[in-house]
């Protein structure tokens, strides 16, 4: 099994995906262990002084004015974990929790938090054992980090609360630790706070969303090309010189992908069944502009994620010169904003895909295709209700596009009086990404059926490769009405796991 080595300078998105989704093992570098030990010496020295230091010898948040005596400090750190593990609602996904833990470990290994090396090693051991703390949907305001979610993870390190074992069964954390030969951690000064104070949950979900959307945006270029072809549209609008005069890189990439899929088509722009079409509808003609704008939003979000992956988010933070300083780096605004930006782009991409699908089904606008792509319209309803489902998903996506980061609610007796809501932005983006895949699956289903109904005309080689692959995947072609839900589920899986893009690339080569 692949092993990810965590050092002092951050991790990569591929590291996060390997640990969160593929179960990769984690190992701390010698450099990280040395940095942890050096920073701990600084914290121990401060703990021995009479002057109060936030997080080391004081209470937290609005209670930071109280100086805590040495005899109570272990209890203080244990108590912050217990009291902050106050999440509610359903458990979040295993991959999210693994990303959350791994990214907190990344910050611990920076040597900026002041925890002992054994605390970081305990976190790595938890990941390697496949033990996943139960983290609940609600509890983070995205400021002072993802406090409740990270607290539930820290609680498992203490041998308290519930966790999911490698077999997926939820059991008491103490039992799971003992079963895997792991000892509960006894926290010392600052360590409880350092385990809780990061934007790790929202960042982990951003990294995974970016990976999923990379596949879905290329998938959208393929489905848009198939629809353009099925509608006998003009591929002249994809010419690179047209996109060079408005030099957005995402737009050029989307147009190039569509052109690659349509190369060699016997349908595009060659068959005018009624009055000659000077221009196609916006949903067809402007596909590269809309998908391209989303791609450029992805690029910006990826830049923010890369910066965060290299960051050490904690409060207070141990600086290289030995100072321990309070700061506001735990505020999730940078991540929250791009999570919301992506939700807006996802909603618009789904919206234009739904409009193309509706055009395929409307006999008054489909240029010769049967109503609803039905076998015997009137007796058969064809894909009428598949488009209803698609429309319902698009409507939900519009609601999910309302920014979470535009909201703030005061907490901690007005000490924490402005928060990012970045966790909420991340949770709704996860839902949005799933909906986008379903919307594109419906367009794929409709477009491949429409292409097969264009008898006597020859689709592009890449289009034929997609049609053949999707049929092999269990998505049936034209014919009388049948139970559609299994076909739509198979099409969704075909899009989501990258087989749609892979099928097109057998002809086109790598799509951008």
TrEMBL record:
The modification 2,3-didehydroalanine (Ser) is found at residue 144. Pfam families: Lyase_aromatic (PF00221). There is a cross-link at residues 143-145 (5-imidazolinone (Ala-Gly)). CDD domains: PAL-HAL. Pathway: Amino-acid degradation; L-histidine degradation into L-glutamate; N-formimidoyl-L-glutamate from L-histidine: step 1/3. Keywords: Cytoplasm, Histidine metabolism, Lyase. Contains an active site 4-methylidene-imidazol-5-one (MIO), which is formed autocatalytically by cyclization and dehydration of residues Cys-Ser-Gly. Its EC number is 4.3.1.3. It is found in: Cytoplasm. HAMAP family: His_ammonia_lyase. NCBIfam families: hutH, PRK09367.1. Belongs to the PAL/histidase family. This is Histidine ammonia-lyase. It comes from Streptomyces ziwulingensis.
């Amino acid at each position: 099994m692949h092993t990810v080595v965590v050092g002092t300078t951050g991790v990569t998105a591929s590291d996060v995906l390997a640990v969160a989704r593929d179960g990769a093992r984690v190992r701390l570098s010698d450099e990280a262990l040395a940095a942890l030990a050096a920073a701990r010496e600084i914290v121990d020295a401060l703990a021995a002084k009479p002057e109060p230091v936030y997080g080391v010898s004081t209470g937290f948040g609005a209670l930071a004015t109280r100086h805590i005596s040495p005899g109570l400090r272990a209890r203080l750190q244990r108590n912050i974990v217990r009291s902050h593990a106050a999440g509610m609602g359903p458990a979040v996904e295993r991959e999210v929790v693994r990303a959350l833990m791994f990214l907190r470990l990344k910050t611990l290994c920076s040597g900026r938090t002041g925890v002992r090396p054994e605390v970081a090693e305990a976190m790595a051991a938890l990941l390697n054992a496949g033990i996943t703390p139960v983290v609940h949907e609600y509890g983070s305001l995205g400021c002072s980090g993802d406090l409740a979610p990270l607290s539930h993870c820290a609680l498992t390190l203490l041998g308290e609360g519930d966790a999911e074992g490698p077999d997926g069964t939820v059991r008491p954390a103490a039992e799971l630790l003992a079963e895997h030969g792991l000892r509960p951690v006894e926290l010392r000064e600052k360590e409880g706070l350092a385990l809780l104070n990061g934007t790790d949950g929202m960042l982990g979900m951003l990294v995974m969303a970016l990976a999923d959307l990379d596949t879905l945006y290329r998938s959208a270029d393929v489905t848009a090309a198939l629809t353009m072809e099925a509608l006998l549209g003009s591929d002249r609008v994809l010419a690179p010189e047209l996109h060079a005069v408005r030099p957005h890189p995402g737009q050029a990439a989307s147009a190039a992908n569509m052109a690659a899929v349509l190369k060699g088509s016997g349908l595009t722009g060659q068959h005018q069944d009624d009055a000659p079409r000077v221009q196609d509808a916006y949903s067809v003609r402007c596909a590269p502009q809309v998908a391209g704008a989303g791609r450029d939003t992805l690029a910006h979000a990826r830049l923010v994620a890369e910066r965060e992956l290299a960051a050490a988010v904690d409060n207070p933070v141990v600086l290289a010169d030995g100072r321990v300083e309070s700061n506001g780096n735990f505020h999730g605004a940078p991540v929250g904003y791009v999570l919301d930006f992506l939700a807006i782009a996802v909603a618009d991409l789904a919206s234009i895909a739904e409009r193309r699908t509706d055009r395929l089904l409307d006999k008054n606008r489909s240029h010769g295709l049967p109503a609803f792509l039905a076998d015997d319209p009137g007796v058969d309803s064809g894909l009428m209700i598949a488009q209803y489902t698609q429309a319902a998903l698009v409507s939900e996506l519009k609601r999910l596009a309302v920014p979470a980061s535009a909201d703030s609610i005061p907490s901690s007796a007005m000490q924490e009086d402005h928060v990012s809501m970045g966790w909420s932005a991340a949770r709704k983006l996860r839902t949005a990404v799933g909906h986008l895949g379903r919307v594109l699956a419906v367009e794929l289903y409709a477009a491949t059926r429409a292409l097969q109904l264009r008898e006597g005309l020859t689709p592009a080689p890449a289009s034929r490769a997609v049609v053949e692959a999707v049929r092999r995947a269990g998505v049936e072609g034209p014919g009388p009405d049948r139970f559609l839900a299994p076909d739509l589920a198979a099409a969704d899986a075909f899009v989501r796991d990258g087989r749609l893009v892979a099928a097109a690339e057998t002809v086109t080569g790598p799509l951008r």
